[in-house]
Design brief:
3 copies of one chain form a homotrimer.
Chain A lengths: L1 H29 L4 H23 L4 H4 L1 H16 L2 H4 L1 H28 L4 H22 L15 H16 L7 H18 L8 H4 L9 H15 L6 H21 L1
Helix pairs in contact in A: 1-2, 1-4, 1-6, 1-7, 2-4, 2-7, 6-7, 6-8, 6-9, 7-8, 8-9
Amino acid sequence: MNALTQVAGYWMDLTGIFAFAMSGAFVAVRKNFGVFGVLLLAEGAGLGGGLFRDLVIGVVPVAFTDCGYYLMPVAAALVVFFSSRVHRHSGVLAVIDVCDTAALALFGVTGAVKALGHDFSWPSAVALGVASAVGGGILSSVLAMEVPSSLRWEQDLYVLPAVTGAGSAILLDAFGVLNGVTAPCAAVPAFGLGLLATRHRWRTPRARIWRNPFSGMRHQPAQARTASTADSERTQLAGPYNERRQWVATTSSRVRPAKVREG
Amino acid sequence: MNALTQVAGYWMDLTGIFAFAMSGAFVAVRKNFGVFGVLLLAEGAGLGGGLFRDLVIGVVPVAFTDCGYYLMPVAAALVVFFSSRVHRHSGVLAVIDVCDTAALALFGVTGAVKALGHDFSWPSAVALGVASAVGGGILSSVLAMEVPSSLRWEQDLYVLPAVTGAGSAILLDAFGVLNGVTAPCAAVPAFGLGLLATRHRWRTPRARIWRNPFSGMRHQPAQARTASTADSERTQLAGPYNERRQWVATTSSRVRPAKVREG
Amino acid sequence: MNALTQVAGYWMDLTGIFAFAMSGAFVAVRKNFGVFGVLLLAEGAGLGGGLFRDLVIGVVPVAFTDCGYYLMPVAAALVVFFSSRVHRHSGVLAVIDVCDTAALALFGVTGAVKALGHDFSWPSAVALGVASAVGGGILSSVLAMEVPSSLRWEQDLYVLPAVTGAGSAILLDAFGVLNGVTAPCAAVPAFGLGLLATRHRWRTPRARIWRNPFSGMRHQPAQARTASTADSERTQLAGPYNERRQWVATTSSRVRPAKVREG
């Protein structure tokens, strides 16, 4: 049973890495990078978070020792690189979004479990879980010179599934019921919350100074322009990203009135 | 006595982390990031340098083991996130600037002392001291897609206090008088020098090719435009950053004639 | 004989670091950074890759223990900082380009050899060789807020010499003939290939969606504009970079018709 769970956990890890790597490869293709750029961004997005976690814990990074871990991003990069069909179907992007959410939840759990296994305290374990979940996306964004999605308020709640997953694992451990069977289950509420956040377009709260009309941030246009530049940058995406563009446009139009009310 | 010094050193560390984290959180709010962005940038700015130092030395990063270290940036992030008053008072920014300078000096000292304690040679110790002092600021700038202040010549002498602090610690060690009492004292001249640099607006020297009118960099406008774009980006900051904006404007007007003379 | 090889290997390492550091320092001067910025970028470009490799392997980074390693970038930074002659002679840039290619090949080999010596499998060794070769350039580009050359398709084949070098070292090891004499020889084909790529302006292949006219990326101008902005950014470089600018211009004009044919 335990061996079975381990195998299941291993394949869930690989799926998460594949999903992250697909996102990284999409960014690279969107930015018109070469084949090595697509490979590097896929590897960075898929393995960056776990690499950081392992370096902090002080073990040789699994990203460089387990052959499945570093071949998964190669596969994702090849799919994104050679298939033009994968860019055309908006369903693919939706599936990747869902897989990304699942991967965030899962990596939050596995990161926290690994940290607990190496005698870290529970807040450190939560921090490491979150870092291993969002680290890959941040690394690939930085390499592609984009502001990471996990920092931007107008993006989906990227960090929430990771925090929830890591927190659930900590709770299970506190009640002494953290084992190979319950650990994957800890990812389920985090995944559900992430899906809810995507579905209902929950946004990350911004600093109070941006929400309070009398707080002094009156000359918002300059900043708003920055935000809308980022949007229009995304909107410049042609053809295959049409669906997503429309989605962004819808979001913006939902968000903007609120912004005007604030200003 | 020694225990007292350790406690004092610990609290000085926390103060430095708090100051760095405030700077990081301010950047995040200025960039209109969400709450997770503010948290991540505060943690990155406060702990990034020490994390790098500990990874190089090969110990488990204190940023993930000591609860005070990772809670301090959370506190800084919450203050910057929820208080709009902290953005309105220019005095707050001035205090943070002074605390930043102190933190740079202090981190330079503690980084060098920790490296010496792990049998690094003195140039490596200086390098690690400087890296642990400026690392956090560089990390948060990279995450926010800004050119790090420590690299830009038109910023204050960011690196100088760190270098002086690390150098003083090395000198004390060379004379065999480095201990719990003298180590914090090594930060004092570095802090003083940093304050002097801020007060008199000392700038980092630029490469000779930028200063020599006959060296071939004649078509400076293109590059100067880049610099002024960075300025105007800062000037776009509304309301609460007014004072700082004015300060930047003053600086620019002092600097620009010299640039014209060069061209 | 073996001692002689080690000395030769050490000096080849230093030459490679010097070449990388020169590139980093050039970027810093072009971006109008201060003296600390030039130093930091030179150190980052020269040592970043090896630092990453050593952190992953789990040894104390040689970049912080061997005095020759961290003094070489300082020397490179001082040359670039103080000499305006080095910027004026296009021959210098050409020499640095050749040295860069040699360094990529060499670092690919040494990275793979070091990884093999620490019991990594051969794909991990290739990955670590490539990472230690391109890591420095990526770090300095990220610090300077530029998209790393190794990712961009319109740049030379940056990654190819590193991959070839690491692959040759792996092949030699597989045949059991990897030793102090053959290891440097493994860099020779990689170096030759790199020179060929530069000479004939080989470009990295892009994703299929960019090459297939019916794949949906029809509204290319938006993306093409991004590419040409990057070009014009480079073209804005004045005086000393004239030769290189012309070179870029030639390249662009060779590339553009192909792009039109694609669209």
